[in-house]
Amino acid sequence: MTVDTLRFATAGSVDDGKSTLVGRLLHDSKSVLTDQLESISRTGTPDLALLTDGLRAEREQGITIDVAYRYFATPRRRFILADTPGHVQYTRNMVTGASTAELTIILVDARNGVVEQTRRHAAIAALLRVPHVVLAVNKMDLVGYEEKEFQRIVEEFAGEAAESDLPSFTPVPVSALVGDNVVDRSARMDWYEGPALLEFLENVPVGVGATDAPARFPVQYVIRDGEVRHYAGQLASGTLRVGDRVTIHPSGVTSEITGIDVLGVPAEVAYAPQSIGVRLADQRDVSRGDMITAGVDVPALTREVRAAVCHLADRPLRVGDRVLVRHTTRTVKAIVQDLGGAAELGANDLGRMVLRTAEPLALDDYAVSRRTGAFLLIDPADGATLTAGMVEL
Fold first, then answer.
1. C-alpha–C-alpha distance, residues 349 and 335, integer Å
2. pLDDT of 174-193, one tens digit each?
3. Rounded CA gap, 164 and 178, in Å?
């Protein structure tokens, strides 16, 4: 049986129990080492939140500040987990954690229901086009495991999801502290007929659509072997086959694939997201930052970039600022032309932007491709990351 990998993130308001939920997942799935378990045990009972709250400031304050990544596995699947902060001032960290996730768990305290941060996290999940969203209604033990409390929150969240254009979500009632419906189904909520959280994580489809999308191959490195050039990188989407006619962007020249190597072994076909080497029939001028595509569905080649954005840096971004745009493996100079009518964007602000680039970029709409529809803005002075953008064509 092939074991695949699911990348997922958690999000929720302060004290909704994200770190405890993640700790419970690790603990009950037997993914915690003995020395780790001893280090978080205080009075004989382990404090599961400390499995992810690794910073000293987090342990002292009892909150999550940074994105904590954890890796674990079950017989069915491997997992890469990002536990993200709940405070408003750390919204950018949630964007970072969810940007590469195929699933986001949004936690809600059953006593408080949907709050402002819940709405914000639903909006971010919709903005980032996260394929799957789980609404985990936590602390069900504190509301007597009542079905009506669960249904009330689900209905309220459904209204917010509709306003945020979040396509769908899967609600699960849980108690992270006690362990109800986290790894094993709970006998205390016999009215709930759905899967436990881990059961859902193990069975949700992953990688759907990546190989069916148009072929996009950003060139990362050129390897010269005598007179033969191998173009290396990660296939962002779609498939490439020996014999395919391809176009190199931004030059627009065409060629044909004469060879593909996957892990150094010749192959007839490559699938996203494999890392590959490609050989072309013609001696073309291809370098890092170019994009090789196959088929008639080509990306938009443009110098005007419109995007939804989240500003990540502490210093504000202003109209007229000169920046670097990093798109896949390509980096070009640009100027900020418009910020959706705003004068500036501060840290954690969500907004819209128009950029004018010095050189054309081969872009896809973010709704079509999360890989080739995303970019970062970089400070040309010190290389700091400023803003994350999602292209809107």
1. 19
2. 999 899 999 999 999 999 99
3. 32
